[in-house]
Amino acid sequence: MLVSSVAVYVPFLGSMDKVCRYWDGPPYMYVAKTLYDVPEDHPFVPYGLPRSYFANHLPAYPLLIRALSLVTLASYPAAMLLATLVTSIAAAILFYELLVRWGLVQSPLWTALLFCVLPPRWVIYHAVGATEPLFFCCVFAALLALRAERPGLVTLFSLLASLTRITGALLPVVFLLIYAQRREWRRAAAMPLAGLGLVALFAWYRVVYGDFFAYFTWSMDEAGMISLEPFEIFRRYAGSEKLHSVELYAWMYILYGLGTLALWKRRELFTYSFLYFAFCTLITHQDLPRYLLAIAPFALLVAFDDVLARPACKAILPLVLYLDYTYVWRFLPSKLVSSGVYEKLLEALGH
Predict the structure, then answer these.
(1) FRET label pair with 2: which of 124, 127, 163, 241, CA 20 to 30 Å apart?
(2) Gap between the terminal Cα atoms of the chain
(3) Which residues, in sequence order, are CB contacts of 46 under 8 Å at separation 6+?
(4) pLDDT 10s digits, 255-265
């Protein structure tokens, strides 16, 4: 995992600021510094973003950045990349342990290796400023705790997941359903406790932004990222200049949907994947591939293990790496915070 992440940096070794400027890394650094107490003249004003925009960046990852800034001598960009690398490595180790203890695949080491390079979008997010690695740590740790019959840890890691990505709020529901399927009613009844973290966070939003639901005000009303009608993304993009994206989304839904159904006999993984897949049908943002990453380890790598474990699939690993890094090295520079905004951000961070 470390090698896979560091390989992302190769073309940018002389300009690592490009890696640090990749969205949403800079806003996470700013939240780490300000803890949501954002002034009106914040560095991202040129993008027309209100103060409440930062409610979209949940606190677990920024708090980790802030903690690691003690190691990097107050360098927030270095702390951000270190936070990503540490959690990426931890996610790979936890995933391997999960594969072994649950007996999910023929070769846990091979599947864990694939986890480091698939899907291509994940290769970006385990190297730049992003919450996915920490989120996976929480998910895998919660499933390991489930296997070990440690409901308290299941609740704790679910709470942490909900403070890492907003989709983490689905994790307590997942485990509530799993415990209900097992008729473990007391454990199921305890899972709503994992939601207390978000309640506390939203109460803080009420203090600093005057809006308890500041996260949803931006996501649903201003950004328009979620619809209550499934597969709205097709109707929104069909007939537009993004028409060809609709076909991509169709194949992604088909692939992930088939993978989710293939997990039927693994009821815990099926419950998790099905709930997240259903949520992704409501996404209307063009970054749908990023949201589907939440189920990729299970709906792709575990579900299709019979195919992926074949010698022919192992033989094309060099092709996978070529496609991965051609994509990553071309795509990463296309989503950068402007250099002017980044300079103002560094000033606000005390650099």
Answers:
(1) 163
(2) 30
(3) 338, 340, 341
(4) 999 999 999 99
In tens, the pLDDT along 73-129 reads: 999 999 999 999 999 999 999 999 999 999 999 999 999 999 999 999 999 999 999
The per-residue pLDDT for range 213-248, each reduced to its tens digit, is 999 887 665 556 778 888 888 887 777 766 677 888
Residue 285 domain flag:
no
State which residues form the domain around 332. 2-225+309-348
Chain centroid to Cα 219, Å, comes to: 16
How many structural domains comprise the chain? 1
Would you say residue 149 lies in a domain?
yes
Rounded to an integer, what distance in angstroms lies between the CA atom of residue 102 and that of residue 86? 24
Tokens of 220: 């649903």
Does residue 291 sit within a domain? no
